[in-house]
Amino acid sequence: MNDPWVTALLRGRWVESLLAVTALVAVSWPLGELVSTRPWIGPLFGVLLLVVAAGSLVRMARVPAWLVLLAQVLALLSGLAGWAQQHRPADESALVAMSALVRQGIGTIQTYAVPAPATPGLTFVVLGSIAALALVVEALGVTLRAGALAGIPLLLVSAGAASGSGQALDPRYFLIGAAAWLVLLAQQGRSRLEEEQDGPQAAVSVDRAAAARGNHHRLGVTARVMGLSALVLAVVLPGMLPHLPPTVLVDGRSGEGAPGTVSFTDTLDLSQDLADRSNAPVIRYRTDDSSPPPLRVMSSLTYADGQWLPVGDATSGPFREPFLSPMSTLIYPESGIESTPRTMTVTQNGMRAPQLAMPYPASEVDLGEVGWTWDPLSEAMHVDSAPGTYEVRYHEMGALETLPEEVGAPPEPLADRYPPDTLVNETTEDGAVFTTTPDGMTVAMMYPDGRYETYLSDGTTVVEHPDGTLQRTFGYGGPNTLAVDPASAGVVGDLAAELAGDRTNQIDVALEIQRYLRSPEFSYSLTLADPVEGPDGEPLDPISHFLATKQGYCTQFATAMVMMARAQGIPARLAVGFLPGSRGLDGTRTVVASDAHAWPELFITGLGWTRFEPTPGQRSGTAPTYATEGQQQEVPTPQEVPSTEEPTAAPAVPDTTGGMGAGGEESWFERHAETIGWTALSLAAVVALASVVPLAGRWHRWRSRRGRSPAAWIEAEWTALVDGLADLGVAPPPAATPRVLRDHYARQIQPDAAARDALDRATDRLESARYAARTPELGTMREDVRRVVEWQRGRVTRRRRLLATLLPTSGRTQLGSLLPGRRPHPAAP
Description:
The chain crosses the membrane at residues 12-32, 38-58, 65-84, 121-140, 147-165, 676-696. By secondary structure, the protein is an alpha+beta fold. It has 24 helices and 25 strands.
């Protein structure tokens, strides 16, 4: 290679650089599954080519490694700055643009679930993160020539991709990255052999055949071991890693069937995608109801910043009661509404405590020995532990041609039912004024701070604050059930008023909103539409975005109806739970994780909390219909409510696990998968730490041989012999000549004939390198040293061999040289 241009190109290590970034892109590719699209692919390749070109061009100039890294960092920042300025206002500086995109990207990560929409901010974060990781791998594997160390960030990125996606990593991604990494190691090995054979010692005679055989043998063994390890890790590790659940409607590794494996998140972020599409069973039950309602788990009355918030703490709160008292069970008899009692028997329960799934309104629950409390505000049950089986009795509203006239009528103030002159105002010592009726019932109250409460005929309270704002609550200090999201109030209010028209009955208004959302204008999709900019140039809020794009899943449909109902003065809340599932041949129903569902509940005068179904029929089945005096019609018999997908398992069969859920159906690996995963990660961390000193030793030996004179190479190999034998318990005598060392080692290790010959040759070559007028050839010096050390390794205990492998003297010396004030090893450059 006498052509200087060819030599310069090889010095740039273009091929190794491309292999390094290819390995990182391969192992990080699954991260793209967390986003709806991959708009960063083109910019990523462009930025990575800048990094590769900058590093390779600077390396061609024979400059220090830190200058190479500086050039690559500047190239990376330049590429990212150029992309950022293309997606931000032109008058912003590159630094301001990048900072704004990072903030937007972090906000998207915190707000959206997988697959999140590819906003410019999220695209920039992913682009910058992958490019920065590629720079780290390239710096370790190419600039610093530590290809083995470059495998550590590759493994960590691969593990992170497997954990973050919530599902097992496809082995192909791991194999592609591992293959690129192995080719990088092989390319480095060949380059080093060429440097050794064509480098500084080219002027002397070298036994190239012997050296090549030894190096090729070690390279082949290393490649085979690494290749086999990569294959095993690619198949085993992704399935063993504990997958971090994305922030979605259902939280946890769903559907395993055993008690306590699935629960709903306390907050429902409207900007998220419903990601859990598993067909694994969650609940199996039997019921005498031919068309059972959804299984309700929890509800929320407060919506803020795109999220539905819990009523209170999951296990305690001021509204907890030890008895079951749904409002509808009390209101039905008062309104003359007939209902049919039904029974549901759960044979397998996969819900995690404190949550429990059951139809609404339930009148009685048998949980065996499990303790429970009832929250009358959210009307949800909280259990102390997950029951394997339980029984629920609930009420099904009877089919009526029409509802009573008073049902759905706007509630009136209780004070309006009495002549004004019969009402009495009483003032308390603290200045509060009570308005009472002749029979002693309080119908209104004025507080000293100016708040005025009016009690309505439906049991709710209207609170008028001094600033003129109104609040509709249940009980004392409850959430405002008429609060409309401020960000979308204008859009929601106008649309609700248009749909309601001249209608005054709550049922009529609700059915019109339900009809509109179930119309062909809207489409059901587990993936949200791309962000839409509002008049101010910022992305629309989640509700306005849904009403504009008309695309979403159950949470979006239910939230939109809740807000439109509230805008029309109808109290409303969001309920979450499961669709009733699919019916097996024996009558047992199976609810799977993908049956997770959300629907609105409106507080209708004369009915109480009443379920509506705005989500399109292909997901939710037939919507409830309630006929009023103004819309006389026969109430249709509810149809079967289908699951999104039929379970892939065989038809449901009766429970044979003794009431302990599906735990008996799980394999040992399934039951302990998470423990195994964390154990594997811990072992990987231990292995990585244990590799630091040996890798440092290899780094030291490579540096001691690279770019030095043949005499220095021989000295470095002799140092490896001294260190290797010292690690194996044979310490050298102080200030000994080569021959004294030889005789000392011969007495201590008692070598066989082949090892003694190797020791003699190594000693003669060292003496010639130190004292002869002409430097000898390297010859088989390295193989002779290895033979002597291996002889002693075979004679010592396993513990000594392990210590020599994990804590070699060369590695400890190299690491010690990095400490302030420490001198490097004598053989180090």
